[in-house]
Known about the structure:
By secondary structure, the protein is of the alpha/beta class. It has helices at residues 8-27, 50-65, 86-92, 125-134, 137-148, 189-195, 209-215, 226-232, 259-264, 267-301, 312-329, 333-356, 360-367, and strands spanning 37-43, 70-75, 97-100, 153-158, 167-169, 183-185, 200-202, 220-221, 240-243, 253-258, 306-309. The protein has a domain at 37-162 and 250-290: Bacterial extracellular solute-binding protein, family 7 (D-Maltodextrin-Binding Protein, domain 2), CATH 3.40.190.170. It has 13 helices and eleven strands. The strands form three sheets. It has a five-stranded mixed β-sheet, with helices on both faces. It has a three-stranded mixed β-sheet with strand order 5-9-11, with no helix packed on it. A three-stranded parallel β-sheet has the order 7-6-8, with helices on one face.
Amino acid sequence: MTTTNVNRRKFLKGGAVAAGAAAATLAMPNVSKAQTTTLKMQSSWGASDIFQEMAAQYTKRATDMAGGRLKIDLLPSGAVVKAFQVQDATHKGALDAAHTVTAYWYGKNKAASLFGTGPVFGCNASQILAWIHFGGGKELYAELVEKVLNLNLVGFFSMPMPTQPLGWFKKHVKSADELKGMKYRTVGLATDIMQGMGVKVTQLPGGEIMPALEKGVIEAFEFNNPTSDSQFGAQDVSKHYHMGSYHQAAEFFEIIFNKDKFNSLPKEHQAILEYSAEAANTASYGMAMDRYSADLQKLIHKDKVNVYRTASSILKAELNSWDKVLERLNKDPFFKKVVDSQKAWSQRVAFYDLLNSADYQLAYEHYFPGALPK
């Protein structure tokens, strides 16, 4: 054993230095080493629409998680390009990113609408979003964007939207026959479905709905939800609101980035941009449940809107129309590949869910008898 004599003053001084170094290490924040980057993102939504608030939920989560090293300048529809043009602008690099929906560019390839407004095989929006993440959907989406269409984009999905209402009409529509010949606004594959039912369809972004209604271009419309619809002023031109439909029963936001720009970012920023879409799911869905339900009650009690559950005969007619549309469009091999994937997923997932889920309507009517419209 070797004994070392230690000077007390040196020991205390050395201990103080070590303690100070340790304290400095603990006090030093764990700051991202990535260079600060600002991305210019435009949405397809008006500045006051709830969808713009949901887009902001996404951008806030991304910038907060990046610790200020990644900033996203979120612009409303029309700031740089029109609502339906954000994909082209992002592809070309005029925008770094966009917050939109695939139905807005389904004119390039109708399979685009399958990633948001596709057929209903029994799964709801949350379950189809699960297909995107776990059932091969994101790989098929990437194949469509990058290989089929050769677009310089990378994209993610967020917010499983509640079923979209059939919409607003001048009267209570009780049968599919009453829809024939009606001038109606919708987008995506819903256009094909409604046209198959004899409806005259016009595709319009949200901001153009009211002017088109005033000019007689359309006489009925759907957009998405009670909050957005009431912000448009639908209750001022119609008092007949039909809830429930198969035309757009499982949609999501599509968040896209210019691929060159995205690939130039540090890996940590790429991960933040991807996983912020998942983080926004909970926030946006929670906001939807709160605001949509409150605004529906306001439409009923303050604005005296007549709210109906869409007639089962109309819903059956929609399914029959879907059958015909799928028969025609499945002739395209890629379209069929996506549909087959969704159908196989739905057969398994919806079976589990429908067999196992509690009867929520039975419980609701038990505690709130007579509240639901018949």
